[in-house]
Amino acid sequence: MRGRFSSSPLRRTCTLSMAQESSALQGELGITLYRIVQECLTNISRHAEAGNVQISVSQQPMCVELSVHDDGRGFDPRVAGHGFGLLGIRERVKALGGSCDIESASGGGTTIVAQMPLSAQSGRR
Ligand SMILES: Nc1ncnc2c1ncn2[C@@H]1O[C@H](COP(=O)(O)OP(=O)(O)OP(=O)(O)O)[C@@H](O)[C@H]1O
Ligand SMILES: [Mg+2]
């Protein structure tokens, strides 16, 4: 499934790519995926000045991988200020036994990749 969304007047294009039927979108794992995308889009809107955003969800036999990429101004993740958003993403992923990688550089855009085990989907909150 692919979707394209534009937000004028900034003319930012957001592309979503994921399998049409994804069991990852259930339970605790689904909530976590939703919250991570929500925080990433908030950050992109507030900080990135990006023209393009790509979100992809890919499911493998044992895990699901979420990637959120923007082509905005980037930042140095080692000196990323005092917000709670990125910290919250890391903690949510860790709580499900997954791993999270934040790649960014000044002027070079930002890519956040989170991998989480599919066994986390059965959890309830
Ligand atoms: N996509 C992005 N593009 C550019 N800079 C970013 C991006 N995401 C985060 N940042 C930078 O990293 C910092 C930390 O992000 P984080 O989400 O943790 O905090 P915040 O957005 O400043 O505040 P909060 O999320 O607590 O409301 C931001 O202040 C910003 O400087
Ligand atoms: Mg934030």
Supply the key terms.
125 residues, 6-stranded mixed β-sheet, binds magnesium ion, binds adenosine-5'-triphosphate, alpha+beta, Heat Shock Protein 90
What this model shows, in words?
This protein has one domain (2-122): Heat Shock Protein 90 (2-Layer Sandwich). It is α+β, with helices and mostly antiparallel strands. It has two helices and six strands, in the order ββαββαββ. A hairpin with a 5-residue loop joins strand 5 and strand 6. The structure holds adenosine-5'-triphosphate and magnesium ion. Adenosine-5'-triphosphate binds at residues 43-44, 46-48, 70, 72-75, 80-81, 83-87, 110.
Break the fold down into its secondary structure elements and pairings.
Layout (H helix, E strand, L loop, with lengths): L1 E6 L4 E7 L8 H22 L3 E8 L3 E8 L14 H11 L3 E6 L5 E8 L8
Parallel strand pairs: 2-3
Antiparallel strand pairs: 1-2, 3-4, 4-6, 5-6
Bound molecules: adenosine-5'-triphosphate and magnesium ion.
